[in-house]
Amino acid sequence: MINSLSLREKSIVFIGFMGVGKTTVAKLVAKKLYRDFVDIDQEIEKEYGMPTTEIFKQFGEESFREKEKEYVFHYSLQPLKVIALGGGAFIREDIRNICLENNIVFYLDISWESWKDRLHMLVDSRPILQNRSLDEIEKLFNERKNFYREHNSSLKTDNVSVEEVADYIIDSLKLAWELYS
Ligand code: S3P
After folding, report:
1. CA of 136 relative to ligand 1 center, distance in Å
2. φ/ψ of residue 86, rounded to 5
3. Could you tell me if the CB of 87 is within 6 A of ligand 1?
4. Which atom of ligand 1 is nearest to the CA of 44?
5. Which residue's alpha carbon is nearest to atom 6 within ligand 1?
6. Is 41 a pocket residue for ligand 1 (Cβ < 6 Å)?
7. CA–CA gap between residue 57 and residue 179 (Å, rounded)
8. Of 131, 81, 116, 73, whose CA–CA distance to 98 is shortest?
9. Dihedral of the CA atoms 44, 49, 54, 56 (nearest 10)?
10. Cβ(109) to ligand 1 under 6 A?
11. How far apart are CA 177 and CA 101, in angstroms?
12. Tens digit of pLDDT for each residue in 5-62?
């Protein structure tokens, strides 16, 4: 399913591990570019009327993943959005393909060392992190990197402010728009 949007019109998609800052960065980039911001997790939570942890508990991960796919397919084909994906969405090949075919995919990368300091802030709201040891989470972190490797552009976010990340992304987008349109 490929649409024929120009590079300037294509929606921008943020991928990366849980808690790397996809939502915060996407929201800021959207604001700076005067585009609509979409957070796939928030869309799912709105539909179910409950937080992700509760959706996992009551309906199971599979239902969450199906909904996630529906929303990603819906929004990735629309123009001029800035979309934050949940960290597990890009594991699915169909989601990777639709995003890479139709969007500009930015990978927000972070080192394990920096990420693990954030764990305590994330665990309550991330069902995937619950009941796992630190070693298991590190394994998941490294496995997920293999999927995130497929992207159009990436940025290491260790010790970089959200504002700096957003400005770097906008500069690189503007350069690409000038060069290729
Ligand atoms: C998940 C990441 C979460 C959310 C859900 C599952 C994952 O999103 O979609 O808890 O499997 O990595 P964030 O990446 O925004 O935390």
Report:
1. 16
2. -70, 150
3. yes
4. 9
5. 88
6. yes
7. 48
8. 73
9. -30
10. no
11. 17
12. 999 999 999 999 999 999 999 999 999 999 999 999 999 999 999 999 999 999 999 9
Residue 126 Cβ contacting ligand 1 at under 6 Å: yes
Domains of the chain: residue spans and CATH? 11-169 (3.40.50.300)
The DSSP code sequence of 75-142 is HHTSSSEEEEPPTTGGGSHHHHHHHHHHSEEEEEE--HHHHHTTHHHHGGG-GGGTT--HHHHHHHHH
* Residue to substitute in 13, 17, 18, 124 for testing ligand 1 pocket (most ligand atoms within 8 angstroms of CB): 18
The helix (run of H) or strand (run of E) holding residue 148 is helix 134-148
Question: So what's the pLDDT on residue 4?
Answer: 80
Token couple for 70: 């529906």
Q: Does any ligand 1 atom lie closer than 6 A to the CB of residue 51?
A: no
CA of 7 to the centre of ligand 1 (A): 28
